[in-house]
Request: fold
Amino acid sequence: MTPEAIEALFVEAVAWPSGVADFLRRAGERTRAAFAATFADGRRLHAVACMEIYANAYFYRIKDALAEQFPLVHHVLGPDGFHNLATDYLCLAPPRSPDLARAGDRLPAFLRAFAACRRDPPYLADFARCEWAEYEALVAPAPPAPPPPPRDPTEALRRRFRRHPAARLFRSCWNYAGAVRARARAAPLPDAPTPGWNLIVRPAYAVVSYRLAPDEGALLSYAARGVTFVELCAEAARLRWSHDRLARTLAGWLETGALVAETAA
Amino acid sequence: MAHYGAILDGAGGEVDVFEAITENFLAGGGRPRAVLDALAPRRPIVFHGVGLGIASSAPPEPAYLEAARRLFDRYDPPWVSDHLCFHRSGRHYTHDLLPIPTTHAVLDRVCERVRWVSKVFGRPFCLENISRYVAYRRTDMDEATFFAELVRRTGCGMLLDVNNLLVCAKNLGEDPHAFLERIPPGSVYQYHLANHTDRGTCAIDDHRGPVPPAVLELYRYAVRRLGPATTIVEWDEDVPPYEVLVAQAARVKAVERTARPSRAMHP
Reply:
């Protein structure tokens, strides 16, 4: 066998969802013969049992990493449900990155795509998206240094805002921050959808989530596109926001790390 | 991560060097990078990867190599390391360190890859012997001969994991002393010491608990035969208080002194 063929046989055997012995039972005669000709027995274990060690390591290492990154999904599904989710996910979306921390990058999309046939709670895919956003926020680069104070009022008006590199904003009718708090209190998770946005930020090193009202989420989404202060004020006026509300909200966005201000062009 | 605070609060004076897992710091920011930034001026940091899969048929992804190179350039480690293993088939990554068939064809491939990544990283590059749980029927040489030839042909350094030799001995009946006899003296840049769990039918390299006497004894033999080098204690499960880890490092230093009281061969 070529090294490529050995690698393919090894990985196919250890990634088989019901174990190496079952893989060989279901494989063709040629595959069984190739396996027998490739792998030797250990000192105390048959070759199949030796390979089961790798199979268990493959599944549990990735499942544990997913459970760490998606604690709310794990909480909602329970240990057995999460085990089954990880099994299905690894079958249909095997890891594509050398970095274990990215093994869950397609889990939110997987939950969304299979929501109907999996009969998950309707909020699960949205919560998974937020949990993945928390991981991305955790390791996102720091924002550029803040600009110096404006030299004159017109420069302040021309300043643009950008999304903080760690910030993530999603429109969703499911309150993620509320669910995280409910889980911490061992309270029931939300079961009624309400319009709004989920905001994930990392102002220093700790990741925080917020629930935003529909109009605040919409305005923040607009501001994060790189608009100037003047443009932001115009949009706030269109939404019938008071100057005071805009000033307080904008200060909050900058303080919590949702937005960063850039030097005027 | 549990001991970031203890290390940055001024502890760690007894520790000569810290080893960081490359993949944990590839992303550009956040607390992990901030901790490295704070630690780097105080102590040398070496990087140890688990994601290169140097012997895989498919070459390492350019984006991965580039991210690793940027990380190494920022912290300027005296050397970097990964494992002699494959880790994927095509684009299917296993996130495990899988054993290679030690054939001439695989040796040629690994030699070519070592030259390539050493050039990309721009600093000495070492490979570690892994724990193995299965053996191949058809090989052209044993693992020690493979390593010796790799060192001879590429100038690659070795990260010798003493615990892994014992795990392979228990699982596959290999002779760890024979392995050490075949490794060229002076080729070891770094040692790894750890514990493993013997489950009766197999030994699992789980890095849980203090370094056991059998590993320390084999380490003493390795230092006598191959020379002293930077030594890292790996303890990944049920991680104890920081003071316990420092005490482990001190114990290892004492063993090294009794083996051969001389200067380290590498910085």
Summary: Chain A has a mean pLDDT of 94. The first strand of chain A starts at residue 39 and ends at 40. Chain A has 13 helices and six strands. Chain A has two domains: 3-120, 144-262.
